[in-house]
Specification:
Blueprint (H helix, E strand, L loop, with lengths): L5 H11 L13 E5 L7 E5 L13 H4 L4 H6 L1 E7 L8 E2 L6 E2 L1 H13 L2 E7 L1 H9 L5 E2 L13 E16 L16 E4 L4 H15 L6 E3 L4 H10 L4 E5 H11 L2 E8 L7 E8 L5 H14 L1 H8 L23
Helix pairs in contact: 1-8, 4-9, 4-10
């Protein structure tokens, strides 16, 4: 599988999040990033806990579609990862308040539905366990739609999905397909679509008579980046926005290649995930389409430098990452 994106897309992804004066994305009150809309302008990201959120009014007709038990409760139970990274989900400068594009979009949905958003942060592996057990209503956590996940969950899309390979700065690595990672040490998060892509590439390498990928797993992002900086791993495959943010913020790594989160030939999509047939996917998609239409959605993506990842509409359960690329 050829990504056909490495040079142009990697350069564009890195440029979309170039930082200005503040080099640490969470260490200062603000961070300057490019607007991400091709305008050449910059956006000031507010990393403080008291940042003013983009809001939107309740829409009664959409709120009425929410399952009765949730309406009576008055809150939307939202789960995301405790191990997130900017600009997706991360801690503000107080090291306690959770901010990021995922948090802001979840707030817009809750606003539209007339519900109070209640957030819980757990380890990645416990996100879906909690949804399965009905502890949480919905996941907003850079979740990619996959055909396998659609068997258990319903999805309402809200962003395009790009993933990226990071390498140590100056490595000279260019990743354009499975042959380029054969025999290399690559870090990836378990249970993610990135892992699925990497495992499939490793199988393709072996079928072609090459060495498999030496896949390494780390519990959190700080451990991954320590391994990358020290040379214990050659590459890290993760979400594109986080990769570009880290490249620009630290100057210690570079983007070696990018591809769609759904593989070659299909644009990956990020979506809110709910239990199958819970009745929430429809009102969440309607809420997302409301904020896409009224401009609040564009404001949220713009303030995080992610305007290039905007979708024209929210879809329920569109085609996702295939079970296999072979």
């Amino acid at each position: 599988m050829n990504t056909r994106r490495t040079a142009a897309t990697a350069a564009g992804l890195a440029a979309a999040l170039l930082l200005g004066a503040c080099a640490n994305p969470t260490g200062g009150a603000t961070t300057e990033v490019a607007a991400g809309d091709g305008s050449g302008t910059s956006v000031t990201i507010d990393n403080s806990p008291d940042r003013i959120r983009v809001t939107t009014p309740k829409v009664d007709a959409i709120a009425a579609k929410v399952p009765e038990a949730i309406r009576r409760r008055g809150s939307l139970e939202i789960v995301n990862s405790a191990d997130g990274s900017p600009p997706l989900v991360f801690h503000a400068t107080d090291d306690r308040t959770r901010i990021g594009v995922e948090v802001d979009i979840a707030h817009l949905v809750a606003d539209t539905l007339g519900l109070e958003p209640e957030f819980t942060a757990v380890s990645w592996e416990n996100i879906f366990v909690g949804v399965d057990a009905a502890k949480y209503d919905v996941v907003f956590n850079n979740i990619t739609v996959t055909e396998e996940r659609k068997e258990k969950y319903d999805f309402a899309t809200y962003r395009k999905d790009e993933v990226a390979f990071q390498a140590k700065k100056g490595s000279g690595l260019e990743i354009d397909g499975f042959r380029d990672v054969a025999g290399r040490t690559v870090a990836v998060d378990s249970g993610t679509n990135q892992e699925k892509i990497l495992l499939d590439w490793s199988r393709q390498a072996e079928q072609a008579g090459l060495e498999p990928v030496d896949i390494k797993y780390y519990k959190d992002a700080s451990d991954v980046y320590l391994a990358l900086d020290s040379g214990r791993v050659e590459l890290y495959l993760g979400p594109g926005p986080s990769a570009a943010y880290r490249v620009a913020a630290t100057g210690r790594s570079e983007i070696a290649g990018t591809l769609s989160g759904a593989g070659d030939g299909l644009q990956g999509l990020i979506a809110a995930a709910t239990r199958k047939d819970s009745g929430l996917a429809e009102p969440i998609a309607a809420a997302l389409n409301e904020v896409i239409g009224n401009g609040a959605y564009a404001k949220v993506l713009g303030r995080w430098g992610l305007s290039a990842e905007a979708v024209e509409k929210s879809e329920i359960n569109p085609p996702g990452l295939p079970r296999s690329f072979r």
